[in-house]
Amino acid sequence: MTLIIRYLGVLSLIFLTAACIDPYNPDVGPYEDALAITGSVLEGRRITRIQLGSTFGFEEEKPRLLGNAKVIINDDEGLSYQLEEKEIGIYETDTSDFVGMVGRSYQLRVETPNGNIYESDWQLMKKSAQIDNLYFEQSLDVRGFDSLDGVQVLVDASDPENTTRFYRWEFEETWHVQVPMPSRADWNTDNHTYTLYENDEIPHICYASQKSNDITLRNTLGLSEDRLVRVPINFVSGESNRLVRRYSILVKQYSLTEESYNFWKIAKDLTQDVGTLFDPIPNQLVGNFRNINDPTEPVLGYFSADGYDEKRIFIDRLDLPPDFSILSNYDFCEEVFFELNQAEDLSLYILNQGGSLSGFATDNFGFVVGFFGAAPECTDCRLQGQLEKPDFWE
Amino acid sequence: MKFRLLLLLLGFTLSFSQGLLGQGSIMVNRNYHGLSLDSLFKSLNSSETPKIYYSKSWISDVKVVQEKVPQDLRHILDKSLENSNFSYLIDRDNNIILLPQKNSQTTWQTSQSSGIETVRKRDDFKKSSAGIATSLRQRPIKGRPLIQLGKAGLVDKQTYELKGLLLSESDESPIQGGRIQIRGENNDIKTGTLTDERGFYEINLPKGIYEFKIEDLDLEPLQVRIEILGDAEQNFRLSSPIKELDEVLIVANTEANIKSSQMGVSRISIKNLKKLPTILGDVDVVKAAILLPGVQTVGEGSNGFNVRGGSADQNLLLLNQSTIFNPSHLFGFFSAFNPDMIESFDLYKSAIPARFGGRLSSVMDIQMRDGNKKAWEANAGISPITLRATLEGPIKKNKSSFLIGGRSTYSDYLLNRLENPLIRNSEANFYDLNAKISFKGNPKDQFEASFYTSRDFFLLNGDTSFTYRNFNGTLNWKHFWNSRLLASNSLIYSEYNYDISTRREPSTNFDLEYRIRQVQINSDWSFKPAPKHQLNWGISSILYSLSPGSQSPRGSRSLVVPVDIETEQALESAIYFSEEYDLNTRIKLYGGLRFSLYNFLGPQTVYNYLEGSPLDPSTIVDSTTYNNGELIKTYGGPELRLSSRILLDENSSLKIGFHRMRQYLHVLSNTTSFAPTDTWKLSDPFIRPQVSDQLAVGYFRNFQRNAYEASVELYIKRVNRILDFKGGAQLVLNPFVETGILAGEGQGYGAEFLLRKNKGKLTGWVSYTYARIFTRIRGDFIEETINDGDWFPATVDKPHDFSLVGNYRFSRRFSISTNVAYSTGRPITFPVGQFQLGSSNILSYSLRNQFRIPDYFRWDLAANFEGNHKVDKLIDGSWSFSIYNVLGRRNPFSIFFVTGTSGIQGYRLSIFGRPILTLTYNVKIK
Question: Would you give the DSSP letter of residue B291?
Fold first, then answer.
């Protein structure tokens, strides 16, 4: 139903060519600093990762993370597992020690360094539904009056026992980044000299990755079978650089309880289904944590015990039809030449114009006679990803 | 030909009020003595004003008698015409109309435009009961005819009774709320009255000569001199100005403004609305209502309107008594009402009369017009989005008529031109159809049947369709028992339904249907035992049948499980009685009592929830099943309606009014403005009826012979058990829908200022409103509470609201009009921060409605051109060009926020973010 309202909302705006959307950033004053806990116990021998963070403001990218807390999972048989702080604010279970059991209930307990104790409601671990299929097809994305060529990643999922009913997906995408003018040396702007990179240091090929921000939810309450077909997970635009060589997506599927699903649904309504004539009235999101000494303290987040399945696919350029249009971001890359005696100019170019060293000009004997400079986006793939090849990359 | 023109001119510019209005004299500066009158007139007509209307053949042998130079034209005419067969009239604009004096009686009688009913025949004499004899004789006095009424000396009384009907000249329909102003010849007596719903008036006057001025809205006012000799019956007829660009924009009954006990009512005639700037070309009653003080919207493109802070479902929208559930086409950009089919509408917002009930905030009573009883007529209009056409005419001349009209869009044609495949495969269109038949059985009975249907269709990307329909019909029988007692009985049917269908993904394809319908009987009686008393009583009963939703799989591969939420049934009945009483010449009192009773009926399964815990599917204990027709729950109670008027002096009055309203039917919506898919829900054991009380005080003052009217109205209101909704609540296809609904209360107050100019070349109004409305949702549990149970501003709380509506008439064929609208931005809930949930950044919102969107300001312009004014032209066209939002100001409809990798970005959505130009062509074929 919300989907229909959303469609109508979109249609109304399409119909109204006079409508316009402009950036607008009102002053909303200081935000309320509250604790935000995210993470869920996963079924089976998997790492359960809990993050303790704070709410954060409009212009910030990340929350401040809260370290040195004691994070404990209690189960309904009276057992407790303390999580280990892997990095500041990130707490993880040890897979050799902790296994999420279907049918068992769990609770999260957090003791912060300043002595506050937070507890979640008890959550029943759901059995996992399977990802039957993860696949992609060529598709067109329509945004306003524009349309983009791209690839739609889709999922089929089912639970033969008809008990899952509530689904949520996240994904992590990784793609191959290859810059056209990889830098072979690091330039020292103080003394105008360079240090050659080792071969494996050359920032030519990297692996960029990004986590999903959109919340994808489905339920099968109104269906006679607990089966979902062709659920769109991610649209990969042909203009995004992701499909230039090789792209991979890991789709994580969570089987939720109804309460957990409703929480995510409201979160999605508030954050993503906006900008039409028929936006939902925002409500405050009430999670399932509370400060056991001060129940009025707002605590954000939801702890759940989820059934889990994941799948990964790769998309090569060759998997796509030859006429599939892929735009490269590197068309703008141009090199600037500096003679040997212009080394100081190269330093200034790097310092003042944000350029970088892209390569060397050599004579027939291999002697360096000059330098090339270019925009760092064209010379250093590390700006977009990391040099290290991920374990899963084939 | 000229003669006919003259008669018609008489019809609409007739004026006997030379002295009353005190025009300046017209001096003739050259000597015309002995020349033909024709040559004098010719030379005068060649100058600018005044115009002289005459037929050359009449005065070919009349010579000018001029005694001096310069001399007042009137003296010259008096002398010159002394021995001729002609008299003359001078109208308001100093135009001179020559009148064949000897033939004057026949002229009056045959001239239907004169507005005065023809002389009673001998038969009427005999029929006159109670010894009331009437006679009508005309005698020109100083060129102005006098009508004598009543038979002198028959009964000797202090005052004599004059009564009769005020009718529309064009179709003989009674004019309700027409104003009759009476002024004694020596200015000793000033009085007046208003016609009731039958068009009936009644007044007591001593013997003497009076100036009568009879007016109603946009009809041509009539002025006559009448001498009262005895009791008499006299009908008057008002005609429409035929092709004159109306000088009056919107005139509520000017004097009624002061004299009626009703306040907070605006009567608006569609004809006058046609001069206002429009958006996309169609005159819109809802958009016009929004320009009135106390009426607002959530934003452009939202369904319906809000009166004094009430939600849009708290307005009772009646089209010929039948309830319109969805008043919008195309996402609210058009109203459901075809302007060509509407006569006028009344919007009641305070002291709502006892005959109305069922909604809290207002009653918008829209009257479909009657078809022309005399001649065939066709109208058509074309604007950028819509096409309109109407056809009307007599079935039996002067007895019965029909009117049929339709409207449709050709927007799909436009959508299909666009490149984008998604849009090309989308459709958005609507049509509506109205029809009305009115029939006069005998002088005592009138019958009317009217019908309305509309359909909106949307198709998105070729696979998901949404259709909604209104379906309404009214049968009405009015019976005049006698001149004092009128009964109006109606049988009414109203239905609204929609369906949604998807063909997107075979396994999840479905059809969904929703429907509400009501069958209603109304019997309204009106009795006037004496001029000082007006009694009204009646009953009303509505049987509701509501199907909250049924969903079925579409196609054999669909896995969708059929869902059919049980049909709801209820009976809403009301009985009312009211009296309006003139305590003395200063004080008029209105008292009404309405008793409404609501029965929620089976068949139904009612769930019982665990006591002491919030309503939630998980707290259901068991359920009770009720059989068909079995009584499940009863609500009801008295609704008091009071108002009074105190005349402070001739030009000002003070009014006080109170009303209580109950509402048993509610819209379920958790979007900021109502979405087309929102549904109506009947009160049930969990959802109790909404109740509101409102107390209002008003001061009304007219200036300069009612040319200006000013008013101030103050009100306070309180609302109980308004509905709100839990975040994310599923409101359609939910058998436990009560678990998503919260109950709250509202309170508001406001001051509304209005200054209106009704006469002259410049007409229009300026209004300013300061009003607040607050909501409190305080349930027993945290889940059922919003903003910690404190008061917060409601979504339509826009404290400052200003509008200016003006029309300037340059000539009879050209006018321009303008609107200016300003209001405070509505309250909105902003995110104040974000937090991480899984891999997503989620917005963390403030308490409800703690911020406001930027203020709203808009300026519109329109120019109206009429075709030429030849009377017997077959086709008569008019153009209207309007610019909506001249400044192109991007008024935000909403502000929304999107999270991304570089923080939260806010956006504002403007619906009409640039000037919208519209050209409309209307044509009338006779």
Answer: T
